[in-house]
Amino acid sequence: MISQTEENYLKALFILANENGETGVNELSKFLGIKMPTVTSMMKSLADKNLVRYITYKPVTLTVTGKKEAASIIRKHRLTEMYLVEKMGFGWDEVHEIAEQVEHVKSNALFDKMDEALDFPKFDPHGAPIPDKNGKIDFPDQRKLSECKVGETIQLSGVIHSSDAFLKFLNSKNLKLGTILTVQLIEAFDGTRELSYNERTAEVLSEIACEKLLVQNLK
Amino acid sequence: MISQTEENYLKALFILANENGETGVNELSKFLGIKMPTVTSMMKSLADKNLVRYITYKPVTLTVTGKKEAASIIRKHRLTEMYLVEKMGFGWDEVHEIAEQVEHVKSNALFDKMDEALDFPKFDPHGAPIPDKNGKIDFPDQRKLSECKVGETIQLSGVIHSSDAFLKFLNSKNLKLGTILTVQLIEAFDGTRELSYNERTAEVLSEIACEKLLVQNLK
DNA sequence: ATATAAAGTTAGACATTACTAACAAAATTA
DNA sequence: TAATTTTGTTAGTAATGTCTAACTTTATAT
Are B127 and B214 spatial neighbours (Cβ–Cβ below 8 Å)? Predict the structure, then answer.
């Protein structure tokens, strides 16, 4: 039996995994807001349970079992977010904290019912892909808005590392997933972008904001 | 901040409270499946937090604060059960375990949304009353089927201390809340009841089963 | 009214999950 | 390459919530 605490570590490892699937202890510590010695000892304990591979002074990787568990928790989280938005009338800026708790509920039936009621959605309300029952994720072909060049016209398809405050900010700018944007101008000295979308012709977004926005090419 | 564990103790105290609102440590221990010394020490800790009144060797009572907290958890549990049955297509025999977990979610908004979607229900799928936001419970005028006399015609209005197995058994007998029953016969030697309802003329229920069924007079 | 049974408490141990302080290894920079 | 910074580990402590063993108080029954 995996505890809620352990589930949170596995989820973090899944989310933070770089190209090699590795995550440093320091990175994990900062992400979870838990001090490094605690993380180290948890890594030992998860390694004993065969959920991660851990060698002292080396980055941590999830085992196949660990990865499956992590994907299952992320699936529960994202299905919950989608259910709250689509079926219960919550805003996309209100669902993270609730999903953070509901994701730990031990009942496949509950999440399968959500999945079905939502007609098996592929993405959550923030554009993040929802793993299927086998833990498989269908990653869309996305890049950051901050990487787009002047003149490009693309579609907003995801928001990453989003605080509720940032989502409320997007609401206030009338930016939603699906909005079609054109990059009008990039300020050389601070990376500020000027964008046009809908009837808006010169909305200004900071570079930091643009790094949190994912876009797709138009189809 | 009250932990999940503490919430479970408060809920149990609320449910087990007798006419004086008292509960013995032993009773609590058996109900929760937790050994008595653990219960004793938890009672001390809850008393320090002003959630219960505890004097050694005396039964425990909830304080006003404790009672309010307990009612809030029970409200969450029963709203969740009702939501799962009415909005998600679960059977009344499938929802207890899920609600047992969801009841600990810290989000008034979630339960208020359920309440609204269900149009502010007064009872859960097992006929138990749902406390309102202020912790007030509207107890209906119910008695046990085991207390009814031969010839009485009443309406099934609640199921108490019900295991999932017992609920499945009721399903198999086609007994639901609202079913109108007539007590045809009570066996003197073992308390077995013969009941008629719908087209069924002589369904036999044990005394133990009849003690778990609550009924109301017809209106 | 005393013996026995039931209920309740105390003391001490243990697992989990967190922390701080001190130290060690690895990476970076001068 | 040597010094410094960053990253990571070890050791020791603490809170929470559980347990068993031993003991005490209260209730029950003969």
Answer: yes
Chains A, B: CB pairs < 8 Å: 40
Cβ within 7 Å of nucleic strand C, residues? A 3-6, 33-35, 37-38, 41-42, 45, 57; B 24-27, 29, 36-37, 39-41, 43-44, 54, 56-57, 59
Alpha-carbon span B71 to B77, nearest angstrom: 10
Q: Does B7 touch chain A (CB under 8 A)?
A: no
CA of B81: how far to CAs of A9, B99, B118, B125, in Å?
30, 6, 11, 7
What is the SS3 assignment for B11? helix
Tokens matching residue B146: 């085991």
| H or E segment and range at residue A12 | helix A4-16
Q: How far apart are the first and last CA of chain A?
A: 45
For strand D, which residues in window 6-35 of chain B come within 7 Å by CB?
Answer: 6, 33-35
Residue A156: CB atoms within 10 Å: 21
* pLDDT score recorded for residue B207: 92
Nearest to A187 by CA among A200, A161, A205: A205
- Amino acid found at B213: L
Amino acid at B119: D
pLDDT digits (tens, 9 = 90+) for B140-155: 999 999 999 999 999 9
Mean pLDDT of all residues in A164-179? 95
Cβ of B110 and A89 within 8 Å? Answer: no
Rounded-to-10 torsion of CA B39, B45, B46, B48? 150
Q: How confident is the model at residue A19 (pLDDT cuts 50, 70, 90)?
A: confident
| Span B180-198, pLDDT tens digits | 999 999 998 888 999 999 9
Mean pLDDT throughout A103-115? 98
Sheet containing A200-205: order of strands:
A143-144, A213-217, A153-159, A180-186, A193-197, A200-205
Tell me the pTM.
0.94
Q: What is the pLDDT of chain B when averaged over all its residues? A: 95
Contact B56, B66 (CB under 8 A): no
* Cα–Cα distance measured from residue B142 to residue A58, given in angstroms and rounded to the nearest whole number: 65
The pLDDT value given to residue B14: 97
Angle formed by the axes of helices A108-117 and B64-88, nearest 10° = 50
Condensed to tens digits (0 to 9), the pLDDT of residues A115-126 reads: 999 999 999 999
CA distance B212 to B145: 8
